[in-house]
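Interim report, section 4.2 (structural modelling).
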Amino acid sequence: MSEIAVRCEDLTRVYRSRSIAGRAREVTALDGLSLEIEAGRVYGLLGPNGAGKTTTVRILSTLLVPTSGHASVFGHDVVRDTRAVRDVIGLAIGGDRGFYGRITGRQNLHYFAALSGLSRRDAKERTNEMLELVHLSDRADENVQGYSRGMRQRLHLARALLTRPRVLFLDEPTIGIDPVMAQEFRRLVPELARQGITVLVTTHYMLEADEICDEIAIINQGKLIASGPPDAIKRGFGSASVTEATVRRNEPGLLDTVRAMAGVEFAELVPDGVFFKLRIFSADGKLTVPDVHSVAGDGNLDDVLQRGRTLEEAYVAILR
Amino acid sequence: MNLQTLVGDPLWRFGTLSVLSFRGLFMWFTPFPYVTNMFVAPFVQVGLFAVVTQFATGRPASDAVIIGMAVLSLTFMMNGGILQSFQYERDFGTFPVILVSRGNRMVTYWSRGALHYADGLLSAVVTLFAASVVFDVDFSRVNVLTVTTALLLIGAAFGAFALFCGNFALIYRAWIILAAGVNSAILALTGVVVARESLPLVLQWAGEVLPLTHGLAALQAGFAGATVNEAGGLLLAEAAVGLTYALVGSGIYRWIEYRARVRGEFHE
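Predicted structure of the assembly:
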């Protein structure tokens, strides 16, 4: 078994605050989360807003201490050995923020290189390399306040890689990036993993997670709900097959009849232009196309197709 | 280890952090506000206070008041710039990046004040020049060494004080209110305009623990011809006040980091 890069054991984080009236409030962001990430893997952390993804990243990157539990990066405790952890990690957070808008992209990277303790020579070399890597060299000498959100996201990635990290934490890195750059990002992340960098990425984009992640964890309300390779997630939880069809007439009782069919785990009928879209989730091989035709009535169905479940559908089913 | 690693790189890092944080976080550092604050405001300030003094006392403003004005411009310039640096660090979302960096926090902390120190000294010199042009200030007895030492010490002590206050700008995100409070306290309690002996005893004590109070007295003594030795006690007192704020301020900065990690504050 390869080396464990990131380990969380029973990680809990409770935010405590007081209202103006002095009433204590508690929000549990993480509730006993445990996970392990092997070195050189791309690990996706998925979950709805408020699930605890960003809190997990903040704890692992030493920005936050857990209320209880234990976390380490390459064996270094994130609470006690902060210096050692910071030596091996890179963090990309912030979205639109996180830079000085009145200086250039290159100057921002120089600044953060100096902040990270790089030598003058190393800082200049790494800045040029990273600007090249994220395709910002031609805009590097413009003030960041004129950058688009996508350019800032790329600059976040460049900054995170400045110190040659062994573990890279990316918090929703492709929000605001145009499709071409998002595709470039999806090419780049596995390449970083091939170079031995472990990547933990949080995202809401299921296609992206499906494409780049070796392993995925789905968390909700601070708890781990499911984890494994994307294909296993898609197959392993509930229905594995999806039947889609265009319904011309929404006959009374049609949806109830479909839901009552053998093997059907979930079905929905949603307006789709002047027609309706029927989507049936069932166990693999339990439902055939003729079965669907038989309950919908002759000539009422078009474009019937059966396919495997997408990660997004698996994700929704798991959270449902 | 060679000389570059031992000296060159640390100096480059401190210089880079100082210059780029000054440019990135100091909102007055654009042509119009900067020229106005640095080169126009001193003339207006000296003139205004001279008129107010004459109106209030029936006598022309003394050299002491005009020298006080020069130092006041130093504090206004440094205070605004340093407080902005701390608040905008948080507002721009760069503070978490500092917290997660492996760099020395004290280098970051002191780099926030370095260029503002130079800026403040320049402002004091410009104001003294304004005073010499607009008013017939008698510079004939000046002890240059005492005046220079006093100005450098005042700038350093006030810089430490402004960095100390900067922590609260980062916490409360209200640099304008803080700046107004600091400027008012300096104006009223340190002997810039109001003679300290005329203040109630409590306010005199408050003035004792503020930067400027002792340094300004040393500066005025220097303009009257006192040597460094003669003004030594005042200079030492100013240095002690500055050193205290330096130690307490840097301790608070570390406490902010601790609080950010434990309570999850200041991340947004």
